[in-house]
Every structure is written in C-alpha cells, then in structure tokens.
Amino acid sequence: MATGTLWATAIGGSLAYTRTRTPLVKPSLRLIHARMHAQAITLALLSGAAIYDYYEKQRKSAE
C-alpha cells in the first residue's frame, strides 16, 4: 500500500515539475518520464528497505 502511494505521488510530482519546467513537451513524453522517475524512486525505496532488513537481521543474530 505504501509503495503504491509513493509511486502515485512520484508520478504526480514529476508531471507537475515537468509541466512548469518544460511546458512545450508533449503530454505523452511527460507521462513516460514521470513513470520512469516513479519507478526509480520505488526501486530505491525497496532497495533501502531490503538493506535495512538485512542489517537488522545481522545485528539481531550478533546479539
């Protein structure tokens, strides 16, 4: 649920940002870029969660 919310927020934020920065870009190209930005942010979030989980398990097994 949280990942989907982050993804949707990233799409909206990217669309708003590109609309103000480059208003002459086609909407279809804006949507493609927004999707790529959202995927990158989601991948970074999931990678960070996996790394955090790994180190938490390592720390607990060392105790």
Description:
- Residues 1-63 form the HIG1 domain.
- Pfam families: HIG_1_N.
- Keywords: Membrane, Transmembrane, Transmembrane helix.
- It is found in: Mitochondrion.
- By secondary structure, the chain is mainly alpha-helical.
- It has one domain (2-62).
- The protein has helices at 2-21, 27-62.
- Helix 1 packs across helix 2 (27-62).
- The longest helix is centred in the last third of the chain and has 36 residues, at 27-62.
- The model has no long low-confidence stretch (mean pLDDT 88).
Rg measurement, Å: 17 Å
Supply the number of helical segments: 2
The number of distinct β-strands equals: 0
| Helix/strand/pairing category | mainly alpha
- Overall pLDDT confidence: 88
Protein name: HIG1 domain-containing protein
Main location: mitochondrion
Keywords: Membrane, Transmembrane, Transmembrane helix
Domain HIG1: 1-63
Task: Name the descriptors.
63 residues; mainly alpha; 2 helices; rod-shaped; Rcf2; membrane; transmembrane; Hypoxia_induced_domain
Secondary-structure map:
Blueprint: H1 2-21, H2 27-62
Helix pairs in contact: 1-2
Summarize the structure.
This protein has 63 residues and is mainly α. The protein is 89% helix and 0% strand. Helix 1 packs across helix 2.
